[in-house]
Every structure is written in C-alpha cells, then in structure tokens.
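Lab notebook, bench 4. We co-purified these components, and the gel suggests they stay together. Before we commit to crystallization screens, I want a quick structural picture of the whole thing.
Request: model the full complex, all chains together.
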Amino acid sequence: MHGSCPDCPVRHQAICSTCNAPELRRLEHARYDRRYEAGQVIVWAGDRLDFVASVVSGVATMSHTLEDGRTQMVGLLQASDFLGRPHRERTPYTVTAVTDVVLCCFRRKPFEEVMAASPALSAQMLDRTLDELDASREWLLLLGRKSAREKFASLLVILARREVGGPQASPGGELQIDLPLTRDMMADYLGLSLETVSRQVSALRRDGIIRLNGNRTVIVQDYAALLTASGETDADGGPLS
Amino acid sequence: MHGSCPDCPVRHQAICSTCNAPELRRLEHARYDRRYEAGQVIVWAGDRLDFVASVVSGVATMSHTLEDGRTQMVGLLQASDFLGRPHRERTPYTVTAVTDVVLCCFRRKPFEEVMAASPALSAQMLDRTLDELDASREWLLLLGRKSAREKFASLLVILARREVGGPQASPGGELQIDLPLTRDMMADYLGLSLETVSRQVSALRRDGIIRLNGNRTVIVQDYAALLTASGETDADGGPLS
DNA sequence: GGCGTTCCTTGATGCAAGTCAATCTGCTTT
DNA sequence: AAAGCAGATTGACTTGCATCAAGGAACGCC
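Here is the predicted assembly.
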C-alpha cells in the first residue's frame, strides 16, 4: 500500500518524480489504485485502457500473440515502470500480471490535460518512451541475431541491471538475480522454446558461470564471462563495478 | 530541394505539420539541410548527433552491430520520417544512407527549447515516438516468432502500407511495391541470411502471390494470400481497399 | 505424511534456416 | 561489344533449435 503521491515509498520512483511536479497535485482527484492477482489479464490486445499507471509492486508482461498461439513478449513491467499510452485509446498488446500487481492509476483524460499544460511532465513522458524504444531496439538485435546461449546470458545481464534498489552483491563478489519469470515466460521473452531455455541454464551452470539457488534465484559466479556470453561489446561497468 | 518550411512540398509532411505550428517559425534560424550520398554513414553508433531532422527524400537505415559483424536493422527511414532524439546527445545505433538522402535539420538545442515551450510540438514528438515503439514491438513478434516465409511476406505488407503517397494499384487490382532495400539489407531487417530471403522471393513467386519486375519491383498478384502468408490476423483493409 | 499440481530437466529425433559454393543476370565502364 | 562487377539465385550440405516424450523436483493442500 502506498499513500497519496507525496508520500510514495522510495521504490515507487515513477510516481514520486511525477507527483512532485506541482502541476500533478491537481491530479489527485483522478488517482486511484488497482490490484490484480497473479495470472490475471490487465488489458487484452485491442481493448481500451482508460488509465495510465505506474507499477507500485509486482511484475507484469506485455505480449503479442499470433492466431495459432505463438507468443512473443514485448515488454516486462516491474516496480516503478510506467504503463499506458497518452492519447491512445487502445493497447495493441496484452498486459498480464505475472505476480500479484498493484498499480497507481490516473484516469487518462485528466492526465492528458495536465500533460498538455506541463512541459516537465511531457518531457518526462517522452524520455520514458525513448528509453522503452531503445530497450526495444536492443531486443530486436537479441531476437534477430543472437544464439540461444547469447539470448539467455543477455537476459540475465538485463535483469541484473534492472534489479530494483540495485543488484545484490553477496560476499565474494557474487551477484544474485531473482528471476521474475518462469522458464516458459523467459522463452517468450527470448523467442525460444522453454526446453531450450532450460538447456541454456544447464549449460551456463556446467560452465561455472552461474549457480542456482532453487529454480528462481541465479547466482552469477563470473559476471565477466556472463557478459562475454551475452555478446555484449563494451565493458559497461556492470552492476558490480 | 525544398524551400523554407511553410513552402514544404506535400511529401515533406513531417516538417510541414511541424513548421505550421506558429512556435516553430522561431526555429527558422536553426534550420538547415544536409545531404548524404548512398552508402554514407550519417551517424555511427555511440556518436553525438547535434540535430534532429526530417527525411526529405531518400532512404536510410538504423542498425545495431555485434563485434563479429552480425547486424540487425532496427529502423527504416523514408521520406517524412523523423530522425533524432530530443534530450539525448548520443545515438545508440548506426544510421546509414541507403540511397542519396536529404535531411531537413534543426539544431538540437534550439529545437528542445521550442519543444519545452510548445505543448503541441511535445505532443507530436511523443506521438511519433509511440508510433515507432509500436512498430518496434510488432517487429519483435516478427523476429521472435515468425518463419522465414512469414517474415518476408510481412515485410512486403509493411512496405506496401508505407509506400509514400499511397501504394500504386495498377489496372487489374495489382499492387506495386518498390523495394528500397537489397536482398541482404532485407536479410538484416528480417534476421535472416540473404540466401533465405532470396529463396522466399522465389517461393512466393512460385505460389503465384507475387511477380517481379526487375530485382527491385514486386507486383503483388494476390494481396489476400500475401496477408495470410504474413501471419496477419485481422483483415486490416489493406492498401487496396 | 502423502498426494497432486506446476514447473523444470534431459534425451531422442526432425526440420528450418544457415553456410559454403557455383552460376546467373543485369548494369556500368571502357 | 566485351569485360568487370555487384547483386541475386540455386544447389548441396550442416547445424541449432524445435518438437515430442519421459521423468524429476519443488511446493501446495488435505
């Protein structure tokens, strides 16, 4: 649970930075929370979405599906991520709650009105959208040109970088990643079959690059090797440096 | 060649709609043209780009490259498309002129200042960016889950929809598509090898769905079949209806 | 504690697309 | 007209990943 916007908890960055803009105070009457249970669909592709929202807690996915059931994930939403499309009635992909999800929503129309009057908010929306676009274009490279091993290693690197509150380094310089997704959701993320994902997990483990702690926690033993395996070009500093 | 903004030719839609906003008149001093020859690189990945621009004529690509040379196209720019990133110094992908290209440029800083003062221009930028994001997410589905045949058919559908000035329907209800790309650029677009692209051309031809007029002009004989082959779900009306 | 469900792993097999290589087709150049 | 060249096609072979199939491990529930 989070209070009114000025009192948002730290992790709730999106709304904090948004609500701290004075113009946004005027939006309080258009603000409300929504809760979804794990597995529930938040919007179906093609349906109306009359709010924009910030993810307070939980994980959700955005995905496209072909008629025969093949699906490709096109977005992964975690705490502080933004959901919704100003000036667009309909959402072209399906959004699904992976865990229980809490959204901090604003009715779309009032939000758009405030946006029109607030250059700061407009700039922030554009900035977020450009970030998503950049991420999406990296994803194109991953799907179009990377091998299964590179894809999975890349996913681990991406998740490591996004770990909310900074990645957890355990003593010994090891890095812990909590997987927010099951194997078959990772398969939908990576454009692979779930069996191939599983094989890549095993392969990286055999190579001593990662270790598992249960099915959902990966401990990275050799981050440099992981980066290499991901096809990453630049030593980006990474979450541990 | 195009004149000052209020006199832009029809095809130069981006600048027209932009420049017709009164605020943008103030940008005339920051406006200039740039010309590139076919094959020339406009920006390298990671380099600064100090202008934003509208494509006046020609075709350019945006692409990511891995160290070993594998490349994935992440954007295709044609007349009236927008190039550049407000509030971002550097461009994360390489932009290359495929044909001779003319850009109508604005220095980035003045553009950003006008944007901050003009809700209309901000809204337009956000709108364009959301369009690119949607296109990019469709592209993820294509790369992640479609077969070679579906990929190539999808590309033809995309190009048909984008043909500037509306697609050309020849007598007999046939649809003509001028390919802006060579086979191996199409391969980079689709995440395939150039040989596979070539085989898909031949396959669609054998099936009577398309006919070729030289290497660069495709005549669609059966648009419905092409749509089906692309994995398209909805009868979208399409360029001929 | 036992049982069912959901998620994960591993193996065997097949196929779509990649790779390597040879040839063909227009275009441009001289 | 001949030569040269970039781009496209086609064939033969290889391979990475999907598919099909059978268990195994973790976690809930009664």
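Confidence is low (pLDDT under 50) at residues 1-13 of chain B. Worth comparing against the SEC data before the next meeting. The CA atoms of residues 51 and 106 of chain B lie 5 Å apart.
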